[in-house]
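Sample pair:
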Amino acid sequence: MIETENLSLRRPEIGDLDAIHAMRSDLDVVRFLGGRALGREEAWHRLTRIVGHWTLRGYGMFAVVEKSSGALVGEVGLFDGCRGLSPAFDNAPEAGWILASAAHGRGYAGEAAAAAHRWFAATHGEQRSVCIIAPENLASFRVAHKLGYKSFGQVEYQNGPVVMLERIPGREA
Protein backbone atom coordinates (compact mmCIF):
# COMPACT_ATOMS: atom_id res chain seq x y z
CA MET A 1 0.00 0.00 0.00
CA ILE A 2 1.09 3.56 -0.76
CA GLU A 3 0.14 6.41 1.55
CA THR A 4 -0.04 10.08 0.57
CA GLU A 5 -1.33 13.03 2.54
CA ASN A 6 -4.96 12.44 1.54
CA LEU A 7 -5.02 9.04 -0.14
CA SER A 8 -4.18 5.37 0.14
CA LEU A 9 -3.29 3.46 -3.02
CA ARG A 10 -3.69 -0.32 -2.97
CA ARG A 11 -4.30 -3.20 -5.32
CA PRO A 12 -7.95 -3.47 -6.34
CA GLU A 13 -10.04 -6.15 -4.65
CA ILE A 14 -13.40 -7.80 -5.22
CA GLY A 15 -15.16 -5.44 -2.81
CA ASP A 16 -14.34 -2.53 -5.14
CA LEU A 17 -16.82 -3.62 -7.81
CA ASP A 18 -19.70 -1.37 -6.74
CA ALA A 19 -17.49 1.73 -6.55
CA ILE A 20 -15.83 0.96 -9.90
CA HIS A 21 -19.23 0.41 -11.49
CA ALA A 22 -20.58 3.67 -10.06
CA MET A 23 -17.53 5.61 -11.23
CA ARG A 24 -17.42 4.05 -14.69
CA SER A 25 -21.16 4.48 -15.25
CA ASP A 26 -20.99 8.23 -14.50
CA LEU A 27 -21.10 10.03 -17.85
CA ASP A 28 -19.18 12.98 -16.38
CA VAL A 29 -16.31 10.61 -15.53
CA VAL A 30 -16.21 8.70 -18.83
CA ARG A 31 -16.80 11.61 -21.21
CA PHE A 32 -13.13 11.57 -22.29
CA LEU A 33 -12.89 7.76 -22.22
CA GLY A 34 -15.17 6.99 -25.11
CA GLY A 35 -18.19 8.68 -23.50
CA ARG A 36 -19.97 5.41 -22.76
CA ALA A 37 -21.06 4.31 -19.31
CA LEU A 38 -20.08 0.78 -18.30
CA GLY A 39 -22.66 -1.72 -17.15
CA ARG A 40 -22.01 -3.87 -14.10
CA GLU A 41 -20.74 -6.78 -16.20
CA GLU A 42 -18.24 -4.53 -17.99
CA ALA A 43 -17.15 -3.06 -14.65
CA TRP A 44 -16.56 -6.62 -13.42
CA HIS A 45 -14.46 -7.37 -16.51
CA ARG A 46 -12.51 -4.15 -15.89
CA LEU A 47 -11.82 -5.16 -12.28
CA THR A 48 -10.69 -8.68 -13.23
CA ARG A 49 -8.49 -7.27 -16.01
CA ILE A 50 -6.77 -4.92 -13.53
CA VAL A 51 -6.22 -7.74 -11.02
CA GLY A 52 -4.89 -10.01 -13.78
CA HIS A 53 -2.51 -7.32 -15.00
CA TRP A 54 -0.93 -7.18 -11.53
CA THR A 55 -0.39 -10.95 -11.69
CA LEU A 56 1.14 -10.87 -15.18
CA ARG A 57 3.26 -7.71 -14.94
CA GLY A 58 3.84 -7.05 -11.24
CA TYR A 59 2.34 -3.58 -11.55
CA GLY A 60 -0.92 -2.01 -12.66
CA MET A 61 -3.72 0.31 -11.70
CA PHE A 62 -4.16 1.05 -8.00
CA ALA A 63 -7.47 1.57 -6.26
CA VAL A 64 -7.38 5.11 -4.85
CA VAL A 65 -9.03 5.42 -1.44
CA GLU A 66 -9.73 8.75 0.23
CA LYS A 67 -8.38 8.56 3.78
CA SER A 68 -10.97 10.91 5.31
CA SER A 69 -13.98 8.92 4.05
CA GLY A 70 -12.60 5.47 3.28
CA ALA A 71 -14.30 5.70 -0.13
CA LEU A 72 -12.75 4.40 -3.33
CA VAL A 73 -12.45 7.56 -5.41
CA GLY A 74 -10.44 6.43 -8.42
CA GLU A 75 -7.96 4.27 -10.28
CA VAL A 76 -4.39 5.41 -10.92
CA GLY A 77 -1.24 3.64 -12.03
CA LEU A 78 0.94 2.36 -14.81
CA PHE A 79 0.07 -0.58 -17.03
CA ASP A 80 0.73 -2.28 -20.36
CA GLY A 81 -2.19 -1.17 -22.53
CA CYS A 82 -1.11 -3.16 -25.60
CA ARG A 83 -2.95 -0.56 -27.70
CA GLY A 84 -1.07 -0.91 -30.98
CA LEU A 85 -0.81 2.87 -31.43
CA SER A 86 2.83 3.04 -32.53
CA PRO A 87 6.16 1.43 -31.63
CA ALA A 88 7.15 4.66 -29.84
CA PHE A 89 4.05 4.39 -27.65
CA ASP A 90 3.61 0.67 -27.16
CA ASN A 91 7.13 -0.09 -25.91
CA ALA A 92 6.72 1.79 -22.61
CA PRO A 93 4.52 1.47 -19.52
CA GLU A 94 1.37 3.57 -19.87
CA ALA A 95 0.12 5.83 -17.10
CA GLY A 96 -3.56 6.37 -16.42
CA TRP A 97 -5.79 8.11 -13.91
CA ILE A 98 -9.54 8.29 -13.49
CA LEU A 99 -11.41 9.76 -10.55
CA ALA A 100 -15.01 9.73 -9.40
CA SER A 101 -16.88 12.99 -9.96
CA ALA A 102 -16.95 13.70 -6.21
CA ALA A 103 -13.13 13.68 -6.20
CA HIS A 104 -12.68 16.07 -9.13
CA GLY A 105 -10.98 19.38 -8.43
CA ARG A 106 -9.22 18.30 -5.23
CA GLY A 107 -5.78 17.58 -6.66
CA TYR A 108 -6.21 13.85 -6.03
CA ALA A 109 -5.29 12.79 -9.57
CA GLY A 110 -1.91 14.51 -9.38
CA GLU A 111 -1.27 13.36 -5.80
CA ALA A 112 -2.09 9.73 -6.61
CA ALA A 113 -0.35 9.66 -10.00
CA ALA A 114 2.85 11.14 -8.55
CA ALA A 115 2.83 8.49 -5.81
CA ALA A 116 2.21 5.71 -8.35
CA HIS A 117 5.12 6.94 -10.49
CA ARG A 118 7.45 7.04 -7.45
CA TRP A 119 6.39 3.49 -6.52
CA PHE A 120 6.91 2.28 -10.09
CA ALA A 121 10.40 3.82 -10.27
CA ALA A 122 11.35 2.29 -6.90
CA THR A 123 10.10 -1.20 -7.83
CA HIS A 124 10.73 -1.38 -11.60
CA GLY A 125 13.42 1.24 -12.17
CA GLU A 126 13.28 4.70 -13.68
CA GLN A 127 12.12 4.41 -17.26
CA ARG A 128 10.24 6.24 -19.96
CA SER A 129 6.45 6.08 -19.65
CA VAL A 130 3.60 7.24 -21.87
CA CYS A 131 -0.04 8.24 -21.67
CA ILE A 132 -2.84 9.25 -24.02
CA ILE A 133 -5.28 12.09 -23.44
CA ALA A 134 -8.25 13.35 -25.44
CA PRO A 135 -7.38 16.84 -26.77
CA GLU A 136 -10.25 18.50 -24.88
CA ASN A 137 -9.39 16.92 -21.49
CA LEU A 138 -7.62 19.93 -20.02
CA ALA A 139 -7.63 18.63 -16.43
CA SER A 140 -5.71 15.50 -17.47
CA PHE A 141 -3.22 17.60 -19.42
CA ARG A 142 -2.54 19.62 -16.25
CA VAL A 143 -1.88 16.40 -14.31
CA ALA A 144 0.34 15.02 -17.08
CA HIS A 145 2.39 18.20 -17.36
CA LYS A 146 2.94 18.34 -13.58
CA LEU A 147 4.27 14.78 -13.82
CA GLY A 148 6.67 15.79 -16.59
CA TYR A 149 4.81 14.41 -19.62
CA LYS A 150 5.30 16.12 -22.98
CA SER A 151 3.41 15.59 -26.23
CA PHE A 152 5.05 13.60 -29.01
CA GLY A 153 2.19 13.02 -31.43
CA GLN A 154 -1.49 12.56 -32.07
CA VAL A 155 -3.31 9.45 -33.33
CA GLU A 156 -6.83 8.16 -33.76
CA TYR A 157 -7.98 5.79 -31.02
CA GLN A 158 -11.49 4.42 -30.51
CA ASN A 159 -13.08 6.77 -33.05
CA GLY A 160 -11.41 9.95 -31.88
CA PRO A 161 -8.12 11.78 -31.66
CA VAL A 162 -5.81 11.35 -28.68
CA VAL A 163 -2.56 13.09 -27.87
CA MET A 164 0.37 10.79 -27.06
CA LEU A 165 2.63 12.04 -24.28
CA GLU A 166 5.88 10.72 -22.85
CA ARG A 167 7.72 11.17 -19.59
CA ILE A 168 11.47 10.70 -19.69
CA PRO A 169 13.21 10.43 -16.30
CA GLY A 170 15.64 13.27 -15.74
CA ARG A 171 13.93 15.58 -18.22
CA GLU A 172 12.49 18.68 -16.58
CA ALA A 173 8.70 19.07 -16.50
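The two ends are 27 Å apart (CA to CA).
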